[in-house]
Amino acid sequence: MPLLLSPADRVVALVAHPDDAEILFFGTLRRWRDAGAAVTVVIATHGVHGISVTDRDAGIRLDAEHRPAESAAAYAGTEIDVECLGLEDGALQPDRHLVSTIEEVMTRLACTVLLTHAVHTGNDHQDHHAVAKAAVNAAARIPGCTTILHGQPIAAHHSVDGVVLVDITNHIDGKLKALQRHQSQSGRYYLGQPFTRHRSAAPGWAKLPHQAADGRCFEALTPSLMLLANPPERP
């Protein structure tokens, strides 16, 4: 399924944690910005609880600015804006507060394209589930939001199948560098080069094997709303 990248789009990537947008959409966001669109990454939480049990027991702590700053550094020089809502990670709920907060941000940014986590019942981080549900709920009240796309979870044992493949070959090296900016998460397999290269090749082998054989890299997305053309005007 083709993805139309318009300079008139106002793209908002709404994610739960610092590093989520880089994992799910970095190349796609770069493609949209290359097309001239306004692109903003909105991170719901500051991610201070995103440390391993081993690091926590060793006395390592993060402050509320640390991980959002890593995300900002990941997009340095790309003309992609980054905002953090500063909510506490680990216990988000798709309740009135979260939905209203997201709706206010999407309204302020005049969002026409929303990228967020997948809405599914399989295994995933609890904050990902909460943000996905709240974002889709909020988007229904944003008249100009005509496209909603969901990234593939990195968690095992999910059944989300991305049917929109975005060729990110020209941005795969930038994606790897962006992921390396998250030094507070160093050692996590899903930020490493082997996993990232495998993940970017797998959708091609599944759906576009000839392009995969040529070394093309992809991000796979699942649409829940796509308006591909404006409806005809009524007489």
Automatic annotation (TrEMBL):
Keywords (alphabetical) are: Zinc
Q: Which domain of life is it from?
A: Bacteria
Concerning Pfam families, the annotation shows: PIG-L
Which InterPro entries does the record cross-reference, listed alphabetically? Answer: GlcNAc_PI_deacetylase-related, LmbE-like_dom_sf
Keyword Ribosomal protein in record: no
| PANTHER family found in the cross-reference section | N-ACETYL-ALPHA-D-GLUCOSAMINYL L-MALATE DEACETYLASE 1, N-ACETYLGLUCOSAMINYL-PHOSPHATIDYLINOSITOL DE-N-ACETYLASE-RELATED
Question: What name goes with this protein?
Answer: LmbE family N-acetylglucosaminyl deacetylase
Q: Which organism is it from?
A: Asanoa iriomotensis
